[in-house]
Every structure is written in C-alpha cells, then in structure tokens.
C-alpha cells in the first residue's frame, strides 16, 4: 500500500499517471480503463498532447468508485452513472457558480433521477426502476401486467433503437433488477413476473442473434455456466452480442457438468471459454484450472483455450491467469480480439 501511495503521489506531482500505471495500481486491465473512458466517460480530465491519458488523484478516485460498484455486480453503465453523479455531488462549486440541485443533500440513490410524474414507484404494482429510460418503465409495466405481446414489442424496439449492448445495460438489466427487488420485498407474489420477463428477454436475445450468420475463419467462443449455476441471461446477452458481430459461439447454458464441459472443449477446440458464476458458491478455481489445461490438436502444435471468468461470483477469488472482463462491453471486445486472431 505504501508503494501505491508513493506511486500516486509521484504521479500527481508529475502531472498524472499513465493508464498502465493506474491499471497496476487498481489491479485492472488497461483495456478496461480505455473501454470505460470511451464508452462511459470515466476518463482523465486532461490528456498529454491531446491524446495520451494522464490520470490525476481525482480521476483515480472516480475509478476506485467505479471498480467498487462493478465488483459488487453493478452493470458498468449503471456504475458509471452512479460514480459520475457521486463525483459531481462531492465537487466544490466554483465561486461564480450557484450551488446546483445535484449538489444538495439527497436521499436518492447516486445517479437516480427525480420521479417522473405519473410513474411513481409507490403506485400499486409498480416496479422500483429508479433512473431509467422511458422504455424501461414501459417494459416494467408490461411485465407486471403479464403482457407478453407488449414485452416482445418493447424489447425488440429497444434493441433496434439503441443496439443490443445499450439496450441490455440501460433497459433490460434495470428492469430485471427491479423485478428482483420487488420479489425480495413482497415475497413470492412476483415470481410469475420474473419468470415471464426472463423468458421474453431470452427470446428477444435469440431473435437478435439470428440476424447474422457466423463469419468463416473466426475462432469459436464456448459459453457455459459453472456446475450448480442456473442464471443464464447475462451469458445469453454475450452470445447474442457475439453473434451480431458474426463471431461463432456455442452456448451451453445452465449448470454444465464438468465432464461435459471438458468434452465440449475437446470437440469444438474453442478460441475462448467463458465460465459464468452468479454466486461465490458456484465459482470454482479448480474448474478454471481444469479447463485451462485441456489441449487439442496434433502433437507438437497443441492448443489451449483462453479462459474468461464472468459474473459477480468471482469477486475476491479470481484465478491467477484467467481473464475477468468487467461487463458485457469488455467481454465482447476481449472475445472479438481472441476470436479474430
């Protein structure tokens, strides 16, 4: 820790740290920092020569907030909004700038917007969607009504309008989280809402994936939940995102047994394997080691897959060599690069 403080102090005195230095300081990949900067505006306030990133202590504080939120399982887009809102709230007002409403004390969640008239979260049956696009509130209302046709139309429209990545992070995930929070507060009453919404999200992702055929010559990505893990939607979103880029993918879904996973790797010879764990109890470092050790090909030119671990279950117990993308956007970038080698 003393070394980290010394690095930060020296870097600040010299005008800021490089992206590589900050990545080592925080224990994340440089590509993650560049992706957050490009996609969400979580970047340095100034650039050396207009191009090279130089991170100040304030910039690094923002990154630490972002890392804490994503490690806790918050989607990157949502984490970025919360981190930026917290930074704006804590920033001192300039002498010529009146104290804005965003800097006044508030009991709302960081990044949450004021309630929209006519869409109060206290309305009977309403889901706690918080700060969300208009489409998110519409999808939440359709889910509560168990309106299958409306959910299909809203999901397809959101993906068409924003693209799969933005629709997942700004419309689909907030609504799924709202259903989960509602279930936790009212007991079993909203189980049917969660099941129906999850089914229609899965169907919409498959429709989006079917729009493009795989491109010849790219390495296949194998996606599977770890044994005992039944949460598949995030992996389905990743599979759809890869398919939309023309990248071949094999999606094995929930709770793939270890022996079946090993056989699938040997039979497909994938460029990469993604192992999803929602909870710590299903995140197995031993499984990662087994998958990493699988070889195929002729003697003298054997290959092994790149292994990525994904999901909040891996937080705090990351395998030493496995890659750990921070969210859907980075996972797509990393797998695309591996697949096209």
Structural commentary:
This protein has 341 residues and is an alpha/beta fold. 51% of the residues lie in helices and 7% in strands. The protein has 13 helices and 6 strands. The protein has helices at residues 2-13, 19-26, 30-40, 57-71, 76-90, 134-145, 148-162, 164-186, 191-209, 233-244, 258-268, 285-293, 328-339, and strands at 46-48, 52-54, 221-225, 249-251, 272-276, 306-310. The strands form 2 sheets. A 4-stranded parallel sheet has the order 4-3-5-6, sandwiched between helices. A two-stranded antiparallel ribbon has the order 1-2. A hairpin with a 3-residue loop joins strand 1 (46-48) and strand 2 (52-54). Helix 7 crosses helix 9 (191-209). The radius of gyration is 22 Å and the shape is globular. Mean pLDDT is 77; it is low at 1-14 and 92-132.
Q: State Rg.
A: 22 Å
Helices, by number, come to 13
Shape: globular
Report the end-to-end length measured between terminal Cα atoms: 37 Å
What is the helix content?
40-55%
According to DSSP, the number of beta strands is: 6
Overall average pLDDT: 77
pLDDT < 50 stretches:
1-14, 92-132
Lateral strand order in the biggest sheet: 4-3-5-6
Largest sheet: 4 strands, parallel
Q: Percent of residues in beta strands?
A: 5-15%
List the secondary-structure elements in sequence, H or E. HHHEEHHHHHHEHEHEHEH
Structural classification: alpha/beta
This entry's quaternary arrangement is single chain
């Amino acid at each position: 820790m003393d070394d980290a403080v010394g690095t930060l102090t020296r870097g600040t005195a010299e005008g800021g740290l490089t992206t590589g230095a900050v990545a080592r300081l925080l224990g994340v990949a440089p590509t993650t920092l560049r992706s957050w900067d490009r996609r969400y505006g979580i970047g340095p306030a100034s650039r050396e020569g207009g191009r090279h990133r130089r991170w100040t202590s304030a910039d690094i504080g923002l990154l630490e907030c972002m890392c804490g939120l994503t490690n806790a399982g918050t989607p990157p887009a949502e984490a970025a909004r919360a981190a930026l809102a917290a930074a704006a709230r804590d920033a001192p007002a300039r002498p010529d700038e009146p104290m804005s409403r965003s800097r006044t004390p508030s009991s709302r969640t960081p990044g949450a917007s004021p309630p929209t008239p006519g869409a109060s979260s206290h309305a009977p049956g309403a889901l706690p969607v918080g700060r969300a696009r208009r489409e998110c509130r519409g999808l939440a209302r359709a889910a509560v009504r168990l309106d299958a046709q409306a959910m299909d139309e809203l999901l397809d429209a959101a993906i068409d309008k924003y693209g799969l990545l933005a629709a997942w992070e700004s419309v689909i995930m907030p609504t799924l989280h709202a259903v989960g929070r509602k279930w936790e507060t009212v007991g079993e009453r909203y189980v049917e809402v969660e099941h129906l919404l999850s089914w229609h999200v899965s169907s919409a992702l498959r429709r989006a994936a079917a729009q493009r055929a795989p491109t010849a010559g790219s390495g296949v990505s194998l996606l599977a939940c770890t044994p005992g893990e039944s949460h598949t939607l995030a992996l389905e979103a990743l599979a759809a995102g890869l398919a939309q880029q023309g990248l071949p993918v094999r999606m094995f879904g929930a709770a793939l047994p270890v022996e079946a996973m090993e056989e699938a790797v040997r039979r497909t010879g994938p460029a990469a394997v993604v192992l999803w764990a929602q909870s710590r109890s299903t995140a197995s470092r031993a499984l990662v080691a087994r998958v990493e050790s699988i070889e195929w090909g002729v003697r003298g030119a054997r290959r092994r897959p790149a292994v990525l671990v994904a999901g909040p279950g891996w937080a705090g117990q990351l395998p030493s060599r496995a890659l750990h993308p921070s969210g859907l956007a980075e996972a797509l970038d990393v797998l695309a690069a591996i697949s096209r080698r």
